[in-house]
UniProtKB/TrEMBL annotation, chain A:
The keyword Membrane applies. The keyword Aminoacyl-tRNA synthetase does not apply. It is a multi-pass membrane protein. Keywords: Cell membrane, Membrane, Transmembrane, Transmembrane helix. The lineage of its organism: Bacteria, Bacillati, Actinomycetota, Actinomycetes, Catenulisporales. This is ABC transporter permease. InterPro entries: ABC3_permease_C, MacB_PCD, Macrolide_Exporter_MacB.
From TrEMBL, chain B:
Keywords: ATP-binding, Nucleotide-binding, Transport. InterPro entries: AAA+_ATPase, ABC_transporter-like_ATP-bd, ABC_transpr_LolD-like, MacB-like_ATP-bd, P-loop_NTPase. It comes from the Bacteria. This is ABC transporter ATP-binding protein. CDD domains: ABC_MJ0796_LolCDE_FtsE. GO terms for molecular function: ATP binding. Residues 21-258 form the ABC transporter domain.
Length: 856, 264
């Protein structure tokens, strides 16, 4: 039987080729994802590991190693600077370096602050011992004196800096400082800083400029012959480090820790990609199963002949499976190699979408080959089991029947299928509805997802029932436009509802997901703008860089502008409430109801005056307090406590109100060092937007670290990033959709083969070649539009449920249906269907009438 | 009528213009070089308007090939075919298709109805493709004669073989074609249904004035025709007018004596 199976594969080369493309793409996506994830992991690991190069021991602040963290400069823990000298004095230490990482905004030659991906520059300390350095210099050298600076190559090239130039950096005290550029180093291989502007100083300068209280890490190199463990013991015994809560690593431990962080950086991302890869693989499984089903049906006569000449049922079953196995192995192996190419494409795609996930080189793990090829084999052989069972049911006598090769027009789907499908769909909708009513957002989301999946499976099961009537409705318009050819196509598309449903299911999966993402992103866009309008109705906001404040004189200048109506400074920081750390916000009282309008549960936001506090609703319970009671608050650096009366509460989430809101006076009392981070502005009525904006820009022009944003700017930023995310999702699902379209082409090709005689008859009766081609194209188009329409209906429904869930939990969010976009999906689906039919239609039209009509 | 065909048999060129189908020196070769097979080896034959002609011959004689070439389903290697004065061999595929649509009707052994269409849709298909509708009177007449009135909404799968072939007959006649080609129309039918179909074909010639060319190897079927032409090894081997079982059998015996010797 093995020989028969091989002979079959060879004989049906053309039929198998299309199916193998679907396996190839599915396996390719999985392999590509695995290879790509392994590659970025290795790249991250390589660059992270550079930090462990030549390091025999390391000391980091309590909480352990943080590879790149420039946020929360204020609160971050550091290693006492005094420790470095003590470490250097140890007899077994060859050298020790204090590592620093903090904000260091760089001005370009026009005096504007350099921003990459919205981030300003970071400053690092360059070691005196080059062996502990982790950047390679492409020209010049490391800074050796206080007035010297080094810069990363990409920024230097972009902003036209050369060795010897003066570079201005805004220091921690917001003062511009000029440095002499002595070195340019390469960060392109470094994933920690990929795409960021990095400048380096000597260690003391780095501490001063970034405003760090101490080191993020002390890296130590031992004298030769000193063991890493011994060195760590000695470090731990140093009085200055003892009891400080610092974390100690040997060089080996540091390497391991860095490796695990590299994994942490990439594994979430790998999982994300893998989800899409598995969707693609499932879709290709559907297509393969359908193909085998059709092939077995078409070969019924051949199989019956085998049974006639004495093949047992088991042998027929085995032969079909062997075919699938050989076919699966070949296609999966090809898919693996396609995956290698695809992983490079993924890298390019993600970088184009603004996600910096660069790879240095491809890491082709044997496990990637094993998993992807194994999956491909499992999919093909698994998909062939049911058709193979169907093959065993072919009665030997069928070999003698003349009418074989023509498929009967099946009318009715099984009653069981209808029952089960309906039951699943209804149960799914009920579960989904229950999920929507859940108050807890994450639980609601889980329940809703479950409901959506069950509904989806139910609808797919009902596919054969839905297909015929829907196709009849869809065929109405082409029927009007193209007349009898389109009517024939409609009849053909509806003749085998089970096959059509199986073929279009693959497309439905992809389109459902794309539609869902489209509806959700469109709704986020719409509601975010609504939310700003309703709850934060500013015209402009002047914002400072992270960890910096808007200087007092800038606020004063803004207040003095005659073009502006309301100007309110906003503060944001951490305070302690009844012993627990909470985020606190404050805004000038003039901003109440004009610039902030939270969704109040009790009281009014304008009740917040010195001596009172408003809380998020859930904080009332978690802090064991209530309206009218008092809470004790302290500042971030301790200091005298305040007793504040709780006067109001507002809705928890969704619109970005902090956990507590206090008066500006109380805020300044608790944290005198912290200035406002934002100034919100309403223009005076009657002043044009252009005039008010020009006035604000002029007022803050002297301070390069301040940015002016209008509502429109925020909207644009949000839209850009949402569009990028949507584009990426669509691209990821694009492959699944492509596989589904190949599935349509495949089914159509096979249908054309089995209808060779019928096509010849139509040609004999007067159907021209062009009409035959058009007929098949309309047929494919109807199938594609059926799949797309089902997907849009379901995806729209799921999207609506998701938006509803979020709206219910947060009070913010309204459904926005992007009709134009969805219509484009339908039209694109129709066009893709037509394209899928090109090859089968050409082949059908080439057939000569006389030979085909006599072929039984 | 017999005088006309007799005259044509002697000298086609001198015949009056009353031929629905006229083939001259028709050659059809399959393959090339040493393996080439001459399925038609210079066939010259004419089919008069309003005449019912049967083509007979043993298996492999080329009768199906002849019909395909006459009907514009297959391209002849050499020679000429005229239907209603139009030279088929000079037409491109599209023109040929349009000609088939309007001027030729087909009836096949295995009925060849489209399974997705109802009987009515099947009957109307050729006219539908041309964007035409049959005159009401003609429709009523054909449907009435074939007794299909109660079956029009049925699909082929719901009809018996005889009913299906009657639907096929209605489809072939609905466009009032120049000629109806019937390829073994009784081959898949029981004797009663077969007789019905033959009776209808005769009647369509006698009363409706149609021209019918039928390929068959059934002597009984052939005897329903006005004339039987014989083909063997791709060559015309005479004809019989007003055929009877005896005259047809005699002619067959003459063209394939070996087969008859073995069989009878």
């Amino acid at each position: 039987m093995f020989k028969t199976a091989l002979a079959n594969l060879r004989a049906h080369k053309a039929r198998m080729l299309l199916s193998s493309i679907t396996v190839l793409l599915g396996v390719g996506f999985v392999a590509g994802t695995l290879i790509f994830t392994a590659s970025i992991k290795e790249s991250f690991f390589d660059s992270f590991a550079r930090q462990a190069k030549n390091v025999d021991a390391a000391v980091t602040p309590a909480g352990g190693l943080r590879v790149s963290s420039i946020e929360n400069q204020q609160d971050k823990k550091t290693v006492d600077p005094a420790a470095l000298d003590a470490v250097r004095d140890l007899p077994d230490v060859a050298s020790a370096e204090g590592r620093v990482l903090g904000p260091a905004p760089v001005l370009d030659k026009t005096g504007k602050v350099v921003k990459e991906n919205g981030n300003t520059g970071v400053g690092v300390a360059f070691p005196t011992d080059a062996k502990l350095g982790y950047f390679d210099f492409s020209s010049g050298r490391a800074p050796a004196a206080a007035g010297e600076i080094a810069m990363d190559k990409a920024t230097a090239e972009d902003r036209h800096f050369a060795l010897g130039d003066a570079v201005t950096v805004i220091d921690h005290g917001d003062q511009p400082e000029s440095f002499h550029l002595v070195g340019i180093f390469d960060t392109s291989t470094d994933k920690t800083y990929a795409g960021e502007t990095v400048v380096g100083f000597t260690t003391p300068t780095a501490l001063r400029v970034t405003g760090s209280a101490g080191y993020d890490q002390i890296a130590v190199r031992a004298k030769s012959g000193v063991g890493q463990d011994q060195l760590v013991t000695e470090l731990k015994d140093l009085p200055v480090l003892d009891g400080s809560g610092d974390t100690f690593y040997t060089g080996a431990q540091l390497t391991t820790e860095l490796a695990s962080q590299a994994t942490g950086y990439t594994s979430g991302f790998g999982t994300f990609l893998l989800v899409f890869a598995i969707i693609a693989a499932l879709v290709s499984a559907l297509v393969i199963q359908n193909t085998f089903q059709i092939l077995v049906a078409q070969r019924a006569r051949e199989l019956a002949l085998l049974r006639c000449v004495g093949a047992t049922r088991r042998q027929v079953f085995g032969s079909t499976l062997i075919e699938a196995f050989v076919f699966g192995t070949l296609a999966s192996a090809a898919g693996f190699f396609a995956g290698i190419g695809l992983s490079m494409g993924l890298s390019a795609l993600l970088n184009a979408a603004g996600l910096n996930m660069p790879t240095d080189h491809l890491v082709i793990d044997p496990s990637a080959a094993l998993y992807s090829i194994g999956l491909g084999l499992l999919l093909t052989v698994g998909s062939a089991v049911l058709p193979a069972r169907a093959a065993t049911r072919v009665a030997p006598v069928q070999a003698l029947s003349a009418q074989l090769g023509e498929t009967r027009v099946t009318r009715r789907a099984g009653r069981v299928r209808v029952g089960v499908g309906l039951l699943l769909a209804l149960a799914g909708i009920a579960v989904g509805y229950a999920g929507m009513q859940t108050q807890d957002r994450s639980r609601g989301f889980m329940v809703l997802t479950l409901g959506a999946m069950v509904t989806f499976i139910g609808v797919l099961a009902l596919g054969p029932v839905i297909a015929s009537p829907v196709i009849r409705v869809l065929g109405w318009l082409p029927g009007k436009a193209f007349g009898p050819t389109a009517r024939l196509a409609t009849a053909n598309a509806g003749r085998n509802p089970r096959r059509v449903a199986a073929t279009t299911a693959a497309l439905t999966i992809g389109i459902t997901l794309v539609t869902m993402f489209t509806v959700v992103t469109a709704s986020i866009k719409a509601s975010a703008t609504d939310s700003i309008k309703q709850h934060f109705p500013f015209d402009y906001q002047v914002v400072s860089e992270p960890d910096r404040s808007v200087p007092g004189d800038a606020v004063a200048k803004l207040r003095a502008l005659p073009e502006l109506g309301t100007v309110a400074a906003e503060y944001d920081g951490k305070i302690t409430v009844n012993g627990g750390s909470e985020r606190a916000g404050a805004i000038d009282a003039v901003g109440y109801h004009t610039l902030i309008n939270p969704i109040m549960k009790q009281g009014s936001i304008s009740d917040v005056v010195p001596g009172t506090v408003a809380l998020q609703d859930s904080r009332l319970t978690s802090l064991h307090t209530a309206i009218g009671q008092t809470v004790t608050v302290t500042g971030p650096n301790g200091g005298p406590a305040l007793t504040l009366k709780v006067v109001a509460s507002y809705q928890d989430s969704g619109i970005g109100m902090p956990e507590t809101t206090i008066s500006v006076a109380d805020f300044q009392h608790l944290d005198p060092a912290q200035g406002p981070d934002t100034v919100s502005v309403l223009a005076k009525s009657g002043v044009t937007l252009a005039a008010s904006r020009a006035a604000i820009e002029a007022a803050v022009a002297g301070d390069p670290l301040l940015t002016v944003n209008s509502v429109a700017d925020y909207k644009n930023q949000l839209n850009t990033s949402l569009n990028q995310i949507l584009a990426m999702f669509t691209a990821m699902l694009g492959l699944a959709i492509l596989i589904a379209l190949i599935g349509i082409a495949n089914t159509l090709s096979l249908s054309v083969l089995e209808r060779t005689r019928e096509s010849a008859l139509l040609r004999a009766l007067g159907l021209t070649r062009a009409q035959l081609r058009r007929m098949l194209m309309v047929e494919a188009m109807l199938m594609a539009v059926l799949g797309v329409s089902l997907g849009i209906v379901m995806g729209g429904g799921f999207g609506w449920a998701l938006v509803h869930l979020v709206a219910k939990a947060t009070g913010v969010g309204s459904l926005a249906i992007p009709y134009t976009q969805l219509l484009i999906y339908v039209l694109a689906g129709a066009l893709a269907g037509v394209l899928a039919a090109v090859v089968p239609a050409r082949r059908a039209a080439r057939q000569t009438v006389a030979t085909a009509i006599t072929e039984a | 009528m017999s005088a006309i065909t007799r005259a044509f048999r002697e000298s086609p060129e001198s015949a009056p213009g009353g031929y629905a189908v006229l083939a001259r020196d028709l050659v059809k070769t399959y393959g090339s070089g040493a393996t080439a097979v001459r399925a038609l080896d210079g066939v010259t034959v004419g089919f008069g308007q309003g005449e019912f002609t049967a083509i007979m011959g043993p298996s492999g004689s080329g009768k199906s090939t002849l019909m395909h070439c006459l009907a514009g389903l297959d391209a002849a290697t050499a020679g000429s075919v005229q239907i209603g004065g139009v030279e088929l061999t000079k037409l491109n595929d599209k023109a040929l298709t349009l000609l088939r649509r309007r001027r030729i009707g087909f009836i096949f052994q295995s009925f060849n109805l489209l399974p997705t269409l109802t009987a009515e849709q099947n009957i109307l298909l050729p006219l539908d493709l041309a964007g035409l509708k049959p005159p009401k009177q003609w429709w009523d007449q054909v449907i009435g004669v074939l007794d299909l009135g109660g079956r029009l909404k049925h699909r082929p799968g719901e009809l018996s073989g005889g009913q299906q072939q009657r639907v096929a007959c209605a489809r072939a006649l609905m466009s009032r074609p120049e000629v109806v080609f019937a390829d073994e129309p009784t081959g898949n039918l029981d004797s009663r249904s077969g007789a019905e179909v033959l009776a209808f074909l005769r009647m369509s010639v006698r009363e409706l004035g149609q021209t019918v060319v039928m390929v068959t190897h059934d002597t009984t079927a052939a005897c329903a025709a006005d004339r039987v032409v014989f083909l063997a090894d791709g060559i015309m081997r005479g004809d019989v007018l007003s055929p009877t079982p005896d005259s047809v059998t005699a002619q067959l015996r003459m063209i394939r004596p070996d087969r008859v010797a073995a069989g009878e």
